[in-house]
C-alpha cells in the first residue's frame, strides 16, 4: 500500500508539473508574447513567387501563418520572448514545393517489395528476381515494381521468363508506368486466369495471349492488373501504415509540403497518419475512374461524402484515366503509330467521357485527366467544352496529367478552358523511354507536340510539376529540384545528351519555380492558401543550401533542401 501511495504521489506531481507548464505557456502566449512570431527567418535570399513582392530578406511566422515578408528589421518587430530567430546567412528561402501529380499510396505499396526501377535490362530484372527469392525464402509471393517497356521493345515479357527463375510461388511485377504488369504461371494460377478468362476491357485492359489463347504473363492496364494483384497482396491497414509512414519523411526531406494524390487514394490511412502525427505533407486525394463499366460518379460521390476534410486532407477531385500507355498502343493519336499504322485506343469512349465530365462539372467537382495521346486529349477537350456550355457558372477546374502529346491546334482550347497541365519534369530529358517511343512508336515527326511547355505558357495555359512518383517511363524520382532542372534544360541531369526536341521549349528558372509552387497550388484550388510567400498564407517554407539563380542550369540538381516547414511545423531539418 505504501508503494502504491508513493506512485500516486509521483503521478500527481507529474500531472501538476505538466499542467503548470502548459498554463504558463498559455499565459505567456496570451500576455507578453501575444501577437508575436513563433519563428523569424532573417538575412535570407527570399524568392517569394509573388509578383507583387518577388524578393525579400526576412519572413516571420505565427501559428502556421506568414505574418511578415520584408526586411530583417520589419520581421524582428514581431520578435517576442519565445520567438525562434533563424539567421539563414544568405541562403535561399522558397515556398514549399507542391507536387501536382503523385502516388504516395503506390510508393508505400511498391516500396515494400522488389524495387526494379534502377535497372534497365531483362537480364538484370531476372537476376534481381532470383536474388530476391533466394534472400526471402519465406515470403508467400514476390511483388515487384519498376521494369521498363523499352527493355522489351521487340517482344513483351512472358511468364516463361519468370518460371525459369521462380516456379514455386507467385511473381507479379508492375512495369514502371504501372500501366502494365509481368506475372509468372503461379501468379496467374492463384488468380485463376486461364484461356477461358474474359478480359476486363477488350483491347484496352487485357491479358495478352498466345496463338492458343493462353495468357502469356503480360498484363495490360489497371483493371486486368488488379484481378491478379489483389489475389496476391493483402493491402491491410498495417501493411499500408508501414509503407506510407516510411515515405513521408523522405518527401519532406526534398521540400515537398503539398501532394496531389492522383488516384488510388487511401484516405482513411492518410487520416490515421495525420492523427498520429506521421503525415508531414498536406494531401489532396482523388477518386480514380479507370473503368467505364462502373458507376464512377456515384462511387465518387459516396467517397466524397465519407471523406471529411481535415487540417491536412481534402477530397474534391475526380481523376479520369481516359487512356493508357503508348507502349501498348492504348492511347489514341491523330496520326497513326509508326510500328503498326493504327490510331490506338482509349479506355472511355466519347459518350462515356462526356457524360462523366458533365455530371462532375454540374456539381463543381475538379477533374484531373490522364490523356497521353493527342487525340485522347481532343476527346477530353470536347467533353469539357460541352460540360462548360451546359453549366457556364460552374467553378470546376480542369487539369491534365503529364502533357505528353499536345497537338498545336489544341493549345488554345486548353487556354480557353483554363486547364492546368501538370508535367513530370523527370520525363522531359531524352531518357530511354522517350528514345524508344521516338524510334519505335511515334517517330520524330511528332516533336512539335512533345512536352510543349513554353508554347503553353505563351498562350496563357498554367503549367505545373508532378513527378508521377513512383510511376514513370524511365526515371523514377520525387526530387523536385531534379524536375526543375529537367524542364529548364530538357536534358539528363549530367547534361551529357542532346537537348530533347523541340529545343526551344525549355523554360526559364522563374517559370520552373512557378510550376513547382504557385501553379501547382492553382491546380488544386489552393492558390490563396499556399504556393507563394505572402502575408496571410500558410507557412509552407523551404531553405536551400544554394541560390538557384547563382547556379548554372546543369547544376540546379546539386542544390539541397536543408530545412522544410509545413503549416509552421518543422518537418525536416538537415544535420548541422
- Summarize the biggest pleated sheet: 8 strands, parallel
Named CATH architecture of the largest domain:
Alpha-Beta Barrel
Q: Considering DSSP H and I runs of 4 or more, what fraction of the residues is helical?
A: 25-40%
Name the average pLDDT. Answer: 93
* Structural class by sheet pairing and helices: alpha/beta
The count of helical stretches stands at: 18
Distance between the termini: 50 Å
Strand percentage lies at 15-25%
Low-confidence stretches: none
What is the name of the CATH topology of the largest domain?
Answer: TIM Barrel
Q: How many domains is the backbone divided into? A: 3
Backbone shape = globular
CATH superfamily of the largest domain: Metal-dependent hydrolases
Q: Strands across the major sheet, in which order?
A: 8-15-16-17-18-19-20-21
Query: Taking Cα atoms only, what radius of gyration do you get, to the nearest Å?
Result: 25 Å
The total count of strands amounts to: 24
Mind telling me the CATH class of the largest domain? Alpha Beta
Which tags fit this structure?
single chain, 576 residues, alpha/beta, TIM Barrel, Diaminopimelate Epimerase, Chain A, domain 1, eight-stranded parallel sheet, six-stranded mixed sheet, 24 strands, 20% strand, globular
Structure, explained:
This protein is of the alpha/beta class and 576 residues long. It has 3 domains: 1-25; 99-103 and 256-537 and 563-570, Metal-dependent hydrolases (TIM Barrel, Alpha-Beta Barrel), CATH 3.20.20.140; 104-232, Diaminopimelate Epimerase, Chain A, domain 1 (Roll). The chain has 18 helices and 24 strands. It has an 8-stranded parallel beta sheet. The protein has a 6-stranded mixed beta sheet with strand order 3-2-7-22-23-24, covered by helices on one side. Helix 11 crosses helix 12. The longest helix is centred in the first third of the chain and has 28 residues, at 2-29. It is globular and about 80 Å long. The mean pLDDT is 93.
